[in-house]
Amino acid sequence: MATYRAEDDYDYLFKVVLIGDSGVGKTNLLSRFTRNEFSLESKSTIGVEFATRSIHVDDKIVKAQIWDTAGQERYRAITSAYYRGAVGALLVYDVTRHLTFENLERWLKELRDHTDANIVIMFVGNKADLRHLRAVSTEDAKAFAERENTFFMETSALEAMNVENAFTEVLSQIYRVVSRKALDIGDDPTALPRGQTINIGSKDDVSAVKKVGCCSD
């Protein structure tokens, strides 16, 4: 029998953003990871929405707050608020539309302009199930990821291929960054100070260690 856990039962809260051109499948990646759902009728996101899901990393419960926004330029006014506090990002392109891959460079620049240098980034080539329509080779995407020092994975939200792996890898890498920072100042990474913000970077004001009271009955 599965053990019930309360919604607020977690050790870490990490904000992760989904960015990329409109129509690359960001919303379906989010719904597949958080609710195991996929919709062929999915429409372009208007404004911003987010969902959460908790996973285990080592012996800790990591809760992801994942933000999804429209890829259209008319929503760029939300940029600063959207990126604030993000410690991880999935930059999504459509493997059947080469222009969405080319635009990763612009999205990456915007991301790096608004976040800390330590943010964990993964390029995600979505719609990999459409093999007969592929316009971006895996090799080209891997080479680009290596040049930019980011992670890379191809996914299919439709077939649930690598969606879990992509999000889990990003969250695990964020946890490792946090642990390394604790080691740098001589702390035990398994005993990070509860109730304090995880300062991966100066712009982080969302991701945090779960606050736990000193006493309980």
Automatic annotation (TrEMBL):
One of its GO terms (biological process) is protein transport. Keywords: GTP-binding, Lipoprotein, Membrane, Nucleotide-binding, Prenylation, Protein transport, Transport. InterPro entries: P-loop_NTPase, Rab_GTPases_membrane_traffic, Small_GTP-bd, Small_GTPase. It is found in: Endomembrane system. This is Ras-related protein RABA1f. It is a lipid-anchor. Pfam families: Ras. GO terms for molecular function: GTP binding; GTPase activity. GO terms for cellular component: endomembrane system. CDD domains: Rab11_like. Belongs to the small GTPase superfamily. Rab family. The keyword Chaperone does not apply.
